[in-house]
Every structure is written in structure tokens, then in C-alpha cells.
Amino acid sequence: MCWEWTDDSGTVPDVTPEEGWARPWNAGDNHRTPGVPKRRFWATEPGGFGQIGCVHTVQGLEYDWGGVIFGPDLTWSGSRWLLHRKHVRSKANRIQDDAELLRAVRNAYGVLLTRSIRGTVLYSVDPATRQLFADLGIPKI
After folding, report:
1. What's residue 80's pLDDT?
2. Dist. CA 96–CA 65, nearest whole Å
3. Percent of the chain, pLDDT > 90?
4. CA dihedral (133, 106, 58, 14) positive or negative
5. I need a surface site. Which of 11, 19, 53, 58 has the fewest CB within 10 A?
6. 130: number of Cβ within 10 Å
7. Euclidean distance between the first and the last CA atom of the chain, given in angstroms as a whole number
8. Which residues contact 119 (CB under 8 A, 6 or more apart)?
9. Which one is predicted more confidently, 11 or 140?
């Protein structure tokens, strides 16, 4: 929810959680990029490998392994989750009430976190959130 979606082809690396690593969002249904699956098939066809799925395209799917990138929209403060409205780039930013927007963002991450059956790799752009993961015993790889 915190990275722009500038391209429908599934080839422009919009998701950039750190310098030197970037991936494209899954393609939309109206693109004509050869070898890149349409939106609803990005996770099940080989051409979707290397793309990032969003909360809308992962719902209803289960994977053996998955990864969730926590962006700058939701960070851990040491005692609670903090919402950073300026980093919410999805339509959810239309929600005026901060408590309701926080609920929506947390729900989106919850959907992403529950898609994997065997395990999920977590990453956060925020050092304090990465420390939370370490404190919870999540091994650093």
C-alpha cells in the first residue's frame, strides 16, 4: 500500500524497499507484455515469478512460502504500531479517520501474512520494526 503502481505491464520495478533491490507489481489484466501473465494468474504462471503481488491479488490463494515487505506506512514504535499516512499510496488514503486507516493497513498486512502455509519471510524498511522481528525470534537471513 506504500509504493506507487505506475505501470500495468508487470515490468517496471515500482517496489523498492532498499537501494539495489526492486521488483515490479504483478501485471494488470489489460497489458500486452509477452510472457507476463494477467493479474489473476501472476502467482500461478511462471511469467509472474519476480513480481510483487498486492493484497488484492493474493486473497484466496495459499503458497508454501511467501514474503511480506513492511513499507514505511506501518512501523513499530517499541510499544505499538504507528501509521504514517503520507506513505499510504493506495485508495485507502481516502479514509479520513486515522484509527480506521490504521485498521485498514493492519488488515492488509494481515491478509499478506496469512497466505503462506510453511513459512513467511518478513522484511521491513524500518529498523525498529526489524528489531521487533528479531525480538520475536524471527531469524535474520
Report:
1. 95
2. 35
3. 74
4. negative
5. 19
6. 18
7. 25
8. 65, 66
9. 11
